[in-house]
């Protein structure tokens, strides 16, 4: 019995020893691995957090760029809407001129809206940057488009004025012919009307040439400002000066007509000498 | 049943109030637009003269003179609008 107890105790001690050693061996073997796993897990979490932050930052950058591009487009569309209002409210342009200008401006607005939709749908910063550049390359609203349309409006208005004046001058010519057939001396009036017609013809030539120049300016034009300045100088100096001379002629014609009509019917060949002139000083400020 | 009627009446009242507000706001918008348009182009439409006679020749010439002056003023206004355009906004150095 004692031997059996000893046997049991020895076995128990041996088992304990083996268990302890085994546990130590396992701990020694796998302990570092567990630590490594924890480190790895921590690193992975940190990297995931960093990746998440980077993705968030990129998304923010993307959204900010889109917002800026949208604002740039919105201000340009607002400017074009003002142009549409300017054209629509003009009482002197013909309906054809209005339709042509309106259609042109509306096309640009549509194009900008399409570009906005494209940019809003872009998924990378690079795409937004690339598409946004079109605002400055394909449209150039402030550098090319708006000055171009405003100058065309000004030229069209002056051409419409010229057409109305040509009509009036034609009717004045008929009146002079009638007066001449009645024996009135209309020599001075005829000279004044000829001068006015000649200046009107010169104005038409300038306006036509300037319109061709302006119509030829587009977003690919290298230095549109120089061409705009040239056209503005033409209008502000040459055309204005010619109109000023025509107003001078008109002033003299009014005096001459008064002289003819007030002259006695018994003196049909009374001379129509100009008595005064209107003072019109052309402004040279473009 | 009563609660259903109350809900329907409430919706109808809400629609009436909303329509009234919309109409009021629309009127205000039109007024502003009209003011803006008036500011943009103030030149009147010239009345065409059908025939120039001894009676109306002075009026025709005076009207033509006035027409020229108005058109040149309009040109000046257009030039002022041109001067206000900030072309530097089309420079690509805008942070994009």
Please tell me about this protein's structure:
The complex is a heterodimer of chains A (286) and B (96). Chain A has 286 residues and is mostly helical. Helices cover 83% and strands 0% of the residues of chain A. Chain A has six helices and no strands. Chain A has helices at residues 2-88, 95-121, 125-139, 141-181, 187-215, 224-262. In chain A, helix 1 (2-88) packs parallel to helix 3 (125-139), helix 4 runs antiparallel to helix 5 and helix 4 runs parallel beside helix 6 (224-262). Chain B has 96 residues and is mainly alpha-helical. Chain B folds into two domains: 1-40; 47-83. Chain B is 69% helix and 0% strand. Chain B contains two helices and no strands. Chain B has helices at residues 2-40, 57-83. The chains are: A mainly alpha (286), B mainly alpha (96). The interface between A and B is large, with 62 and 46 residues.
List its traits.
heterodimer, A: 286 residues, mainly alpha, 2 domains, 6 helices, 83% helix, B: 96 residues, 2 helices, 0% strand
Name the shape of chain B in a single word.
Answer: flat
Q: How many alpha or pi helices of chain A?
A: 6
Number of strands of chain A: 0
Strand content of chain A: under 5%
Element-by-element helix/strand order of chain B:
HH
Morphology of chain A: rod-shaped
By secondary-structure content and strand pairing, the structural class of chain A works out as mainly alpha
Distance between the terminal alpha carbons of chain A, to the nearest Å? 130 Å
Strand content of chain B: under 5%
Largest sheet of chain B: none
Give the termini distance of chain B in whole angstroms: 61 Å
Number of strands of chain B: 0
